[in-house]
Amino acid sequence: MRIHFVDTFTDRPFSGNPAAVVLLDDDFPPDEQLQRLASQLNLSETAYARPLPPGAEADWALRWFTPAAEVRLCGHATLATAHVLRTSGRLAGRVRFATLSGVLTATGEAEGTLTLDFPTAPLTPVRDVASAAEALGGTRIRSAWRTGPDVGDLLLEVEDERAVRSVRPDPGRLAGLSERGVIVTARAADASSTYDYVSRCFYPDVGVGEDPVTGSAHTALAPFWSPRLGSEQLVGFQASARGGIVHTTVRGERTLLGGDAVAVMEAELRVPL
Protein backbone atom coordinates (compact mmCIF):
# COMPACT_ATOMS: atom_id res chain seq x y z
CA MET A 1 0.00 0.00 0.00
CA ARG A 2 1.38 3.38 -1.04
CA ILE A 3 1.47 6.44 1.20
CA HIS A 4 1.70 9.76 -0.63
CA PHE A 5 3.20 12.81 1.08
CA VAL A 6 2.06 16.16 -0.29
CA ASP A 7 2.88 19.74 0.77
CA THR A 8 -0.25 21.86 0.42
CA PHE A 9 -1.20 25.53 0.07
CA THR A 10 2.24 26.11 -1.40
CA ASP A 11 4.00 25.78 -4.75
CA ARG A 12 7.35 24.93 -3.14
CA PRO A 13 8.39 21.68 -1.45
CA PHE A 14 9.09 21.71 2.29
CA SER A 15 6.70 24.58 2.94
CA GLY A 16 2.94 24.81 3.44
CA ASN A 17 1.23 21.99 5.32
CA PRO A 18 2.33 18.38 4.73
CA ALA A 19 -0.34 15.68 4.58
CA ALA A 20 -0.24 11.93 4.05
CA VAL A 21 -2.72 10.36 1.63
CA VAL A 22 -3.68 6.68 1.48
CA LEU A 23 -5.89 5.56 -1.42
CA LEU A 24 -7.75 2.37 -0.55
CA ASP A 25 -9.19 -0.16 -2.99
CA ASP A 26 -12.07 -1.23 -0.77
CA ASP A 27 -13.71 -0.49 2.58
CA PHE A 28 -11.99 1.46 5.34
CA PRO A 29 -10.06 -0.71 7.80
CA PRO A 30 -11.13 -0.54 11.47
CA ASP A 31 -10.84 2.91 13.02
CA GLU A 32 -8.11 1.87 15.45
CA GLN A 33 -5.89 0.83 12.53
CA LEU A 34 -6.47 4.12 10.72
CA GLN A 35 -5.63 6.00 13.91
CA ARG A 36 -2.55 3.88 14.54
CA LEU A 37 -1.05 4.71 11.14
CA ALA A 38 -1.91 8.42 11.53
CA SER A 39 -0.15 8.42 14.90
CA GLN A 40 2.87 6.69 13.35
CA LEU A 41 3.11 9.26 10.54
CA ASN A 42 2.63 12.11 13.06
CA LEU A 43 1.50 14.75 10.56
CA SER A 44 -1.31 17.21 11.17
CA GLU A 45 -3.59 14.94 9.15
CA THR A 46 -3.52 11.65 7.32
CA ALA A 47 -6.27 11.27 4.72
CA TYR A 48 -7.85 7.95 3.78
CA ALA A 49 -9.96 7.75 0.62
CA ARG A 50 -11.83 4.87 -1.00
CA PRO A 51 -13.77 4.87 -4.29
CA LEU A 52 -17.57 4.77 -4.20
CA PRO A 53 -19.71 2.83 -6.69
CA PRO A 54 -21.42 4.50 -9.65
CA GLY A 55 -24.59 6.29 -8.65
CA ALA A 56 -23.35 7.16 -5.15
CA GLU A 57 -23.63 10.72 -3.84
CA ALA A 58 -19.88 11.20 -4.36
CA ASP A 59 -16.90 9.69 -6.17
CA TRP A 60 -14.77 8.93 -3.11
CA ALA A 61 -15.36 8.57 0.62
CA LEU A 62 -12.81 10.60 2.56
CA ARG A 63 -11.76 10.61 6.23
CA TRP A 64 -9.08 12.54 8.11
CA PHE A 65 -7.09 11.64 11.23
CA THR A 66 -4.68 13.72 13.29
CA PRO A 67 -2.10 11.86 15.40
CA ALA A 68 -4.71 11.75 18.18
CA ALA A 69 -8.24 11.83 16.70
CA GLU A 70 -10.51 11.75 13.67
CA VAL A 71 -11.74 15.22 12.64
CA ARG A 72 -14.93 16.35 10.91
CA LEU A 73 -13.35 18.73 8.39
CA CYS A 74 -9.87 19.20 6.94
CA GLY A 75 -8.83 21.44 4.07
CA HIS A 76 -5.16 20.69 3.47
CA ALA A 77 -5.52 16.89 3.45
CA THR A 78 -8.50 17.21 1.06
CA LEU A 79 -6.31 19.34 -1.20
CA ALA A 80 -3.55 16.72 -0.93
CA THR A 81 -5.97 13.91 -1.82
CA ALA A 82 -7.26 15.80 -4.85
CA HIS A 83 -3.66 16.44 -5.93
CA VAL A 84 -2.82 12.72 -5.71
CA LEU A 85 -5.95 11.83 -7.69
CA ARG A 86 -5.10 14.43 -10.32
CA THR A 87 -1.46 13.39 -10.74
CA SER A 88 -2.45 9.71 -10.93
CA GLY A 89 -5.00 10.43 -13.66
CA ARG A 90 -8.09 9.77 -11.53
CA LEU A 91 -9.30 13.38 -11.33
CA ALA A 92 -10.60 14.98 -14.49
CA GLY A 93 -11.98 18.43 -13.75
CA ARG A 94 -13.94 17.75 -10.55
CA VAL A 95 -14.09 15.13 -7.82
CA ARG A 96 -16.72 14.76 -5.07
CA PHE A 97 -15.83 13.53 -1.60
CA ALA A 98 -18.34 12.09 0.89
CA THR A 99 -17.22 13.21 4.37
CA LEU A 100 -18.47 13.79 7.91
CA SER A 101 -19.18 17.38 6.79
CA GLY A 102 -21.24 16.39 3.76
CA VAL A 103 -20.19 16.26 0.12
CA LEU A 104 -17.13 18.40 -0.64
CA THR A 105 -15.76 19.02 -4.11
CA ALA A 106 -12.32 19.71 -5.53
CA THR A 107 -11.90 21.22 -8.97
CA GLY A 108 -8.75 21.62 -11.01
CA GLU A 109 -7.32 21.33 -14.47
CA ALA A 110 -4.26 19.28 -15.44
CA GLU A 111 -1.93 21.63 -13.57
CA GLY A 112 -2.14 24.61 -11.25
CA THR A 113 -4.36 25.63 -8.38
CA LEU A 114 -7.02 23.32 -7.00
CA THR A 115 -10.25 24.80 -5.61
CA LEU A 116 -12.15 23.22 -2.73
CA ASP A 117 -15.87 23.87 -2.16
CA PHE A 118 -16.56 23.74 1.61
CA PRO A 119 -19.44 24.80 3.88
CA THR A 120 -19.10 28.32 5.28
CA ALA A 121 -18.60 28.23 9.04
CA PRO A 122 -21.22 30.14 11.05
CA LEU A 123 -19.76 32.75 13.42
CA THR A 124 -21.22 33.34 16.88
CA PRO A 125 -19.76 36.14 19.06
CA VAL A 126 -18.13 35.30 22.40
CA ARG A 127 -18.19 37.89 25.17
CA ASP A 128 -15.95 36.38 27.84
CA VAL A 129 -12.37 36.33 26.51
CA ALA A 130 -10.45 36.36 29.80
CA SER A 131 -9.39 32.70 29.58
CA ALA A 132 -8.42 33.07 25.93
CA ALA A 133 -6.33 36.18 26.65
CA GLU A 134 -4.50 34.30 29.41
CA ALA A 135 -3.85 31.38 27.05
CA LEU A 136 -2.28 33.83 24.58
CA GLY A 137 0.05 35.24 27.22
CA GLY A 138 -1.96 38.40 27.82
CA THR A 139 -2.38 39.32 24.13
CA ARG A 140 -5.22 41.85 23.72
CA ILE A 141 -8.23 40.32 21.96
CA ARG A 142 -10.41 42.63 19.85
CA SER A 143 -13.19 40.10 19.21
CA ALA A 144 -13.88 36.40 19.68
CA TRP A 145 -16.13 34.00 17.76
CA ARG A 146 -17.27 30.38 17.79
CA THR A 147 -17.10 28.75 14.38
CA GLY A 148 -19.81 26.06 14.39
CA PRO A 149 -19.70 22.27 14.78
CA ASP A 150 -17.86 21.29 11.58
CA VAL A 151 -14.86 23.53 12.35
CA GLY A 152 -15.20 23.70 16.12
CA ASP A 153 -12.60 26.43 16.63
CA LEU A 154 -12.46 29.61 18.68
CA LEU A 155 -11.53 32.50 16.36
CA LEU A 156 -9.70 35.35 18.09
CA GLU A 157 -9.09 38.69 16.38
CA VAL A 158 -6.04 40.46 17.84
CA GLU A 159 -4.65 43.98 17.43
CA ASP A 160 -2.42 43.59 14.39
CA GLU A 161 -0.26 41.29 12.28
CA ARG A 162 2.68 41.70 14.62
CA ALA A 163 0.57 40.33 17.48
CA VAL A 164 -0.35 37.27 15.41
CA ARG A 165 3.25 36.56 14.49
CA SER A 166 4.61 37.07 18.00
CA VAL A 167 1.99 35.21 20.05
CA ARG A 168 3.32 32.30 22.11
CA PRO A 169 0.27 30.51 23.53
CA ASP A 170 0.29 28.23 26.55
CA PRO A 171 -0.85 24.78 25.27
CA GLY A 172 -2.19 23.84 28.68
CA ARG A 173 -4.38 26.94 28.83
CA LEU A 174 -5.49 26.50 25.22
CA ALA A 175 -6.79 23.02 25.95
CA GLY A 176 -10.54 22.99 26.39
CA LEU A 177 -11.21 26.50 25.05
CA SER A 178 -13.07 25.00 22.09
CA GLU A 179 -14.02 21.69 20.51
CA ARG A 180 -10.93 21.57 18.28
CA GLY A 181 -8.58 24.52 18.62
CA VAL A 182 -7.88 28.25 18.41
CA ILE A 183 -7.43 30.58 15.42
CA VAL A 184 -5.58 33.87 15.95
CA THR A 185 -6.01 36.46 13.19
CA ALA A 186 -5.51 40.11 12.16
CA ARG A 187 -5.63 42.08 8.95
CA ALA A 188 -2.43 42.44 6.95
CA ALA A 189 -0.13 45.18 8.22
CA ASP A 190 0.68 46.38 4.70
CA ALA A 191 -2.24 47.05 2.37
CA SER A 192 0.07 46.49 -0.61
CA SER A 193 1.16 43.01 0.48
CA THR A 194 0.19 39.89 -1.46
CA TYR A 195 -2.28 38.80 1.25
CA ASP A 196 -5.22 40.50 2.97
CA TYR A 197 -5.22 38.88 6.41
CA VAL A 198 -2.93 36.72 8.50
CA SER A 199 -3.59 33.86 10.91
CA ARG A 200 -2.08 31.13 13.04
CA CYS A 201 -3.86 28.00 14.32
CA PHE A 202 -3.27 25.86 17.43
CA TYR A 203 -4.79 22.43 18.14
CA PRO A 204 -3.29 20.79 21.25
CA ASP A 205 -6.56 18.97 22.02
CA VAL A 206 -6.20 16.84 18.86
CA GLY A 207 -2.45 16.36 19.00
CA VAL A 208 -1.34 19.27 16.80
CA GLY A 209 0.52 22.06 18.59
CA GLU A 210 0.56 24.58 15.73
CA ASP A 211 -0.86 23.62 12.36
CA PRO A 212 1.26 24.96 9.46
CA VAL A 213 -1.72 25.86 7.19
CA THR A 214 -5.35 25.12 8.09
CA GLY A 215 -7.73 25.10 5.14
CA SER A 216 -10.83 24.43 7.24
CA ALA A 217 -10.08 27.44 9.47
CA HIS A 218 -10.41 29.64 6.39
CA THR A 219 -14.09 28.68 6.10
CA ALA A 220 -14.41 30.89 9.19
CA LEU A 221 -11.65 33.39 8.40
CA ALA A 222 -13.10 34.17 4.97
CA PRO A 223 -16.62 35.13 6.15
CA PHE A 224 -15.07 37.01 9.08
CA TRP A 225 -12.77 39.17 6.94
CA SER A 226 -14.78 39.54 3.73
CA PRO A 227 -17.33 42.08 5.08
CA ARG A 228 -14.61 43.92 7.02
CA LEU A 229 -12.34 44.24 3.99
CA GLY A 230 -15.13 44.74 1.45
CA SER A 231 -14.45 41.84 -0.87
CA GLU A 232 -15.77 38.32 -1.40
CA GLN A 233 -12.37 37.28 -2.76
CA LEU A 234 -9.39 37.50 -0.41
CA VAL A 235 -5.99 35.96 0.20
CA GLY A 236 -5.04 34.63 3.60
CA PHE A 237 -1.50 33.98 4.80
CA GLN A 238 -0.97 31.51 7.64
CA ALA A 239 2.16 32.75 9.40
CA SER A 240 3.52 29.48 10.77
CA ALA A 241 7.18 28.54 10.46
CA ARG A 242 6.42 26.83 7.11
CA GLY A 243 3.79 29.36 5.99
CA GLY A 244 1.14 29.01 3.32
CA ILE A 245 -1.34 30.88 1.14
CA VAL A 246 -5.09 30.23 0.91
CA HIS A 247 -7.25 32.02 -1.68
CA THR A 248 -10.79 32.41 -0.36
CA THR A 249 -14.12 33.26 -1.98
CA VAL A 250 -17.30 33.51 0.08
CA ARG A 251 -20.49 32.45 -1.71
CA GLY A 252 -23.16 32.50 0.96
CA GLU A 253 -23.33 29.11 2.63
CA ARG A 254 -20.28 27.86 0.73
CA THR A 255 -16.67 29.04 0.80
CA LEU A 256 -14.13 28.27 -1.92
CA LEU A 257 -10.55 27.57 -0.87
CA GLY A 258 -7.87 27.75 -3.55
CA GLY A 259 -4.33 26.48 -3.22
CA ASP A 260 -1.40 24.74 -4.82
CA ALA A 261 0.15 21.42 -3.82
CA VAL A 262 3.49 19.68 -4.35
CA ALA A 263 4.10 15.93 -4.08
CA VAL A 264 7.34 15.39 -2.16
CA MET A 265 7.59 11.68 -1.37
CA GLU A 266 5.99 8.24 -1.52
CA ALA A 267 6.43 5.32 0.85
CA GLU A 268 5.39 1.66 0.88
CA LEU A 269 3.52 0.34 3.90
CA ARG A 270 5.14 -3.03 4.62
CA VAL A 271 2.57 -4.31 7.12
CA PRO A 272 -1.20 -4.84 6.72
CA LEU A 273 -3.39 -1.86 7.52
From TrEMBL:
Q: Which residues form the active site?
A: E45
Q: Which GO terms describe its molecular function?
A: isomerase activity
Can you quote a single GO CC term? cytoplasm
Pfam assignment, any one: PhzC-PhzF
Q: List, alphabetically, the InterPro entries matched.
A: Phenazine_PhzF-like (IPR003719)
Q: Keywords assigned by UniProt?
A: Isomerase
Question: Can you tell me which family this protein belongs to?
Answer: Belongs to the PhzF family.
Spell out the NCBIfam families in the cross-references: PhzF_family
The cross-references to PANTHER family, in alphabetical order and at most eight, read:
PHENAZINE BIOSYNTHESIS PROTEIN, PHENAZINE BIOSYNTHESIS-LIKE DOMAIN-CONTAINING PROTEIN
Instruction: Report what the protein is called.
Output: PhzF family phenazine biosynthesis protein
**Species classification:** Bacteria, Bacillati, Actinomycetota, Actinomycetes, Kitasatosporales
